[in-house]
Amino acid sequence: MSMAGNLRKVTSLGRAGGLRTVARLARRRPRVDLSHPARSPLGSSVVNCVTYRDGVRTPEGTGLVDAVRRVRKRGDGFVWLGLHEPTNEEFADIAELFDLHPLAVEDAVEAHQRPKLERYGDTLFAVFKTVCYVEHEELTATSEVVNTGEIMVFVGPDFVVTVRHGRHGSLGPLREELESDPEQLAKGPSAVLHAIADHVVDDFLTAIDEVQGDIDQAETAVFAEDGARLDPGRIYQLKRELLELKRAVVPLGRPLEELATRPVRVVAPEIRAYFRDVSDHLLRATEQIAAFDELLNSILQAHLAQVTVAQNEDMRKITAWAAIVAVPTMVCGVYGMNFEHMPELGWRYGYALVIGLITVACAVLYRGFRRNGWL
């Protein structure tokens, strides 16, 4: 539809109801990757569809079916199809065209999967959790530290289908980076799978470095002079967000190890060495997360110890003042009894003596508590 036609359509919706409808549709559909010039219109789940031959983008073929037909007719090259949160209806024809397994298709559409690697005949299905650090001015008990998404990858002999869920993790820059290295891209669909895995793990390390800054701030706040007044919810929130990061990083270890060590039909042998490098980076990320978890436990224990010490100091002060107040309370209690025969009641200097005794006793107790650090 032309731009003029679109404008007429929006205008015909009406001033109030039409604007609300457009705004609701804009909120419903997350942003798609528009960084690449070859893209589908906004609102479609198809982000990009490109054919590669010998590591170079080929301009031939405007549709997916035509591109696949040309690749399979020549017997070389592959098609890379990128999708963003497709529906079952949108993905049905694609699944039929590439003969994708129904279970893998269901996982790709529904999302919320653990990182994994599955084989269905000549097709490899991989799930990656993407991580994005959320910027915030100050860490609170409700701050979002990391945001997660998913990338599902179908890899076949002559195709790569990527399904992205979430508002981050765009593959547009990655595609352009791969196109700038035709020699690597010429190794086939497995080169794309490696690039995606490397991109995801690099994002893990970036997010971990940012989370380390938040942990350092929490540690500094705990050991400050008023550390006992720190809200422990900040530390618990960091632990919750670290757990979210751990769920994305740790399960990916086994799939990467399998890609790096075991022969897979659609993975070129020379690509396995690259997967070993990605696996090493993932191991570093896993170790850092484990270290952060232990550090947060130590920070939390230190904070609880500080709270206990502060409470003990308050109790000592209360106890010391209670002991001082007990002296006049006891003396006044004795002389407040209604007895007729008390020696000091008829004495001229009895009142002054009692007041002086109370003052001296309280002063001695106060000095003793101050010397011992209770006051």
Topology, element by element:
Layout: H1 3-11, H2 16-28, E1 46-53, E2 56-58, H3 64-74, E3 78-84, H4 88-98, H5 102-110, E4 116-120, E5 123-133, E6 146-155, E7 159-165, H6 172-179, H7 182-185, H8 189-222, H9 232-249, H10 253-261, H11 272-335, H12 350-371
Helix pairs in contact: 8-9, 8-11, 9-11, 10-11, 11-12
Describe this structure in words.
By secondary structure, this protein is an alpha+beta fold. Helix content is 57%, strand content 14%. The protein contains twelve helices and seven strands. A seven-stranded mixed beta sheet has the order 2-1-3-7-6-5-4, with helices on both faces. Strand 1 and strand 2 form a beta hairpin. Helix 8 (189-222) packs antiparallel against helix 9 (232-249) and helix 9 (232-249) runs antiparallel to helix 11 (272-335). It is rod-shaped, with a radius of gyration of 35 Å. The protein starts with a helix and ends with a helix. Residues 1-43 have low confidence and may be disordered.
Task: Describe the structure in brief.
This protein has 375 residues and is of the alpha+beta class. The protein has helices spanning 3-11, 16-28, 64-74, 88-98, 102-110, 172-179, 182-185, 189-222, 232-249, 253-261, 272-335, 350-371, and strands at residues 46-53, 56-58, 78-84, 116-120, 123-133, 146-155, 159-165. 57% of the residues lie in helices and 14% in strands.
Which strands sit side by side, in order, in the main sheet? 2-1-3-7-6-5-4
How would you spell out the order of helices and strands? HHEEHEHHEEEEHHHHHHH
Share of residues in helices: 55-70%
Overall shape: it is: rod-shaped
Distance between the termini: 82 Å
- DSSP, total strands: 7
Gyration radius, rounded = 35 Å
Total DSSP helices: 12
Give the overall average pLDDT. 81
**Unreliable spans:** 1-43
Strand content: 5-15%
- Biggest sheet: strands, sense, closure? 7 strands, mixed
| Structural class by SSE content | alpha+beta
